[in-house]
Design brief:
There is one protein chain. The protein has 363 residues and is mainly alpha-helical. Helices cover 74% and strands 2% of the residues. It has a two-stranded antiparallel ribbon. It is globular. The relative contact order is 0.10.
């Protein structure tokens, strides 16, 4: 047993919730952002502003035509797997071999591909690390083992993992449509909390394929956390903090939350209120890329995703037009209500003496 521990330490294989549930999951979201999400944004910009170089076909592969954005989106599997490998500190031969593993697991995982990529890439990466530089023909052995294990696992478990993820996602979306008030609260609060915690709400939403009303509630919860912390900590952090949290990430407050969890009350209450308003009043739906549901106001990705969904729905004929009510709902849910509600709740929290000036100061 002691020998195994030494071997794992030498290979930097750390079997822990932090390594797999935080580091790998967070990196996977970055891989998604740099492929699927950016591709979607490029396509939206191209179609809305009629930019020829972004809307015309630049490549045809096996009869499928791709735009610039389409090529970026098509690389989501490899991008996620390489990002995961980078987070797991894989040596070069393992990291590059994960390109194939990511493509296979994402393709075989279907609509739930991101979850399949997460599991398969982690296992293939760790096994690849274990054999790396253990033989004199490392340049052959390491890629063969990493790709072999990854593709075999993809064939064995990726379809089941992808199907399971989609069933869970569909269950959440079905429940949200059936009970928009209750589920609007639950989805908004849970996804919002996940966004602030050192895990990836974007990766979770992508893995579950969370769209529709449930996706709208998720957007509301994320916006409540980001905008909420940005405005209630303005006295401590001024404009720099407003921007870094409001369009960056509320995760910056995690250290302060550990010191005083009560600073989290206002954003959580805001998410519990804006979630059902999004689902019951404005019927806000995320019909763009599922990963956008967990991004909130980060780079305005959540809002771009909602808008992309509107455009797609209009093009498909399922939505007549984008109305002023749609825009009012998006602006209120994303920015106005989170700011107002968080400030009001925070006022009373401070009156109770639970939070004081300086508690949300960013380092």
């Amino acid at each position: 047993m002691e020998g195994i521990k030494k071997f794992l330490k030498r290979k930097d294989i750390e079997i822990s919730l932090k390594r797999y549930g935080i580091d790998a999951l967070g990196a996977m979201a970055q891989g998604l952002f740099c492929s699927l999400l950016i591709g979607t944004i490029i396509n939206t910009i191209g179609s809305q502003f009629h930019i020829a170089c972004l809307t015309q076909t630049v490549a045809t592969v096996a009869g499928a035509e791709y735009t610039v954005g389409g090529l970026a989106s098509a690389m989501s599997g490899p991008a996620m797997a390489v990002a995961i490998g980078y987070a797991l500190k894989c040596p070069p031969l393992v990291l590059f071999s994960l390109i194939t593993v990511g493509f296979a697991s994402n393709a075989l995982g279907g609509a739930g591909g991101p979850l399949a990529v997460l599991f398969v890439a982690i296992i293939a990466a760790e096994i690849g690390k274990a054999v790396s530089k253990e033989t004199k023909v490392d340049i052959l052995v390491t890629p063969l083992v990493t790709i072999g294990v990854g593709v075999a696992l993809s064939a064995l478990i990726a379809p089941a993992l992808g199907a399971a993820a989609m069933k869970v996602g569909k269950l959440i979306m079905w429940a949200t449509e059936l009970q928009p008030l209750l589920m609007g609260i639950l989805v908004s609060v849970i996804v919002g909390i996940a966004l602030t915690l050192p895990i990836s709400s974007a990766a979770i939403c992508a893995a579950l394929g969370l769209t529709g009303l449930a996706g709208g509630a998720a957007v509301a919860g994320c916006c409540a956390q980001m905008v909420g912390f940005a405005v209630i900590s303005f006295k401590d952090n001024k404009w720099g903090g407003l921007v870094s949290q409001g369009i960056g990430t509320s995760m910056l407050q995690m250290g302060n939350i550990i010191k005083n969890p009560r600073i989290w009350i206002a954003p959580i209450v805001a998410s519990a209120i804006t979630g059902p308003i999004a689902t019951c009043v404005f019927k806000l739906q995320m019909n763009g890329a599922a990963v956008s549901s967990g991004m909130g106001t980060c780079g305005l990705v959540g809002q771009i995703g909602v808008y992309t969904g509107w455009v797609n729905d209009v093009a498909a004929g399922s939505k007549a037009a984008i109305t002023g009510f749609d825009w009012a709902g998006l602006v209120l849910i994303s920015f106005v209500l989170p700011a107002v509600i968080s400030l009001l709740v925070h006022f009373f929290v401070k009156k109770l003496g639970w939070v004081k000036d300086g508690d949300m100061k960013l380092a």
